[in-house]
Amino acid sequence: MTSAGFFGFEVVGVNQSVDTMEGIAYRMANAKPAWEASAKNMESGEARLFERYHGKYVRTGATLRSLTEWHANDAIRDVHGDGQGLTFGTAVWYARFLKRKTPSGRTKSAVLQLLPKERRGIRDVYMAFVMGQPMPVVMQ
């Protein structure tokens, strides 16, 4: 006669894991605070960019203000209602004509540039928020 052996086991920490995953899912579904912090990072990046240009692309200051100040005239900052994205830019009409040549000879916008430092900052802010950790301080 053979006997079948049965054994039981208990997984420790399942409830905590479920809570963590639900928190991540909730924060991913509404990442508005992360996008707002990311917009601040982008504003800081634009301010650094304009500083490097030493006034080259500033005539009235409207484009500069619209890209570096959240509530400036012509500033476009829209954290989408569902918290799933961010629209960042300027409504200053002539900003579209601010172009520069790249080393390869291509023409691209002289403003609205995301340098690797800003890209990493946005990624770090978003990931910290989604994971429920304190968001990094806005780069200056």
What's the SSE blueprint?
Elements: H1 14-29, H2 32-53, H3 62-68, E1 75-79, E2 86-90, E3 99-101, E4 107-109, H4 116-130
Antiparallel strand pairs: 1-2, 3-4
Structural class: alpha+beta
Record the strand order, biggest sheet. 1-2
Which whole number gives the mean pLDDT?
86
The end-to-end span amounts to: 77 Å
Pattern of helices and strands: HHHEEEEH
Number of domains: 1
Number of beta strands:
4
Gyration radius (Cα, Å) is 23 Å
- State the share of residues found in helices, binned by percent: 40-55%
Q: What is the strand content? A: 5-15%
Give me the number of helical elements: 4
What oligomeric arrangement do these chains adopt?
Answer: single chain
Uncertain regions: pLDDT < 50 for 5+ in a row? none
What does this structure look like?
With 140 residues, this protein is α+β, with helices and mostly antiparallel strands. The protein has one domain (17-130). 43% of the residues lie in helices and 11% in strands. The protein is built from 4 helices and 4 strands; from the N terminus they run αααββββα. The chain has helices at residues 14-29, 32-53, 62-68, 116-130; strands at 75-79, 86-90, 99-101, 107-109. The strands form 2 sheets. A two-stranded antiparallel ribbon has the order 1-2. A two-stranded antiparallel sheet has the order 3-4. Helix 2 packs antiparallel against helix 4. The longest helix has 22 residues, at 32-53. The relative contact order is 0.18.
